[in-house]
Write a structure and sequence with these properties.
Blueprint: H1 3-24, E1 30-38, E2 41-48, H2 51-55, H3 60-72, E3 78-84, H4 92-104, H5 109-122, E4 127-134, E5 142-149, H6 156-160, E6 163-170, E7 175-183
Parallel strand pairs: 2-3
Antiparallel strand pairs: 1-2, 4-5, 4-7, 6-7
Helix pairs in contact: 4-5
Length: 248
């Protein structure tokens, strides 16, 4: 088998498995499936709003799914794990199923489309688009588009970040199709410019040199200066000549 045929065959198998699980797990709030091959077999991750319904009592439902995947779709040794959807509004499968269930209950298609669109945008999505097609008002089929926010149509972000899903519902006029595209808030755009705020100036603090501990101050010794003795002036005593007595 050539590489092209192999990729086509695997893509067809993934689509068939997705449609099978969507019909089987409609009550559980099915939100998509992820298949990855491992050395031990095939790891199947099912996203659902209510994981308890996917697992079943004692794991009965999940064992039936594993047997169906192995027999009907030739999936080698499927290891199924269930992951709960934290924010249903950011899952395109859940939004599409909500619109189809509203149409099946008899809600007008415009009301159902705007209701689902407002829920997605209020949850914080960057953009969303819901297309409802079929015999909406007359016998002639047409489509109506509900769009809000901003999201790219082509390019790398549209291929990697955008989430898409389709759902169908059989009504009295005919088959109605719902296609949902939404851009989650954590999508990366390479052309998005972010301006960094300037950091406040940091004052440089000069670390003081470590001082060695000074010994306790001792009372200063008082220097005794020698007291100067009074100088004794030596006077030389000269023998003064005695005055001669007057002779008589």
């Amino acid at each position: 088998m050539s590489i092209v045929k192999r990729f086509i065959t695997e893509s067809i198998k993934r689509t068939e498995i997705d449609e099978f699980l969507q019909k089987k797990l409609e009550r559980a709030g099915y939100g998509g499936v992820n298949l990855s091959k491992t050395p031990l077999g095939t790891h199947v991750v099912i996203y659902a709003m209510r994981p308890g319904l996917v697992i079943g009592r004692g794991g009965e439902t999940i064992k039936e799914l594993a047997g169906a995947l192995e027999q009907n779709f030739k999936v080698s040794n499927p290891q199924i794990s269930v992951s709960e959807i934290e924010i249903p509004e950011f899952n395109a499968h859940v939004v599409a199923n909500r619109v189809t269930s509203a149409l099946e209950r008899g809600v007008h298609f415009r009301r159902a489309g705007f209701w689902a669109l407002n829920q997605v945008m209020e949850a914080g999505a960057l953009g969303a688009e819901i297309v409802i097609s079929g015999k909406l008002t007359t016998e002639r089929a047409r489509f109506e588009k509900f769009k809000a926010g901003h999201f790219p149509i082509v390019g790398d972000p549209a291929l990697k970040a955008m989430k898409t899903a389709e759902a169908h519902v059989q009504l009295k006029p005919g088959m109605i199709g719902v296609r949902v595209k939404l851009m989650p808030p954590d999508a990366y755009f390479p052309d998005k410019v972010t301006i960094a705020e300037p950091e406040p100036p940091v004052e440089e603090q000069v670390a003081a040199p470590a001082q060695s501990p000074t010994p306790p101050a001792t009372p200063a010794a008082v220097e005794q200066t020698p007291v100067a003795e009074p100088a004794v002036q030596a006077h030389e005593v000269k023998d003064e000549p005695k005055s001669e007595e007057a002779k008589p």
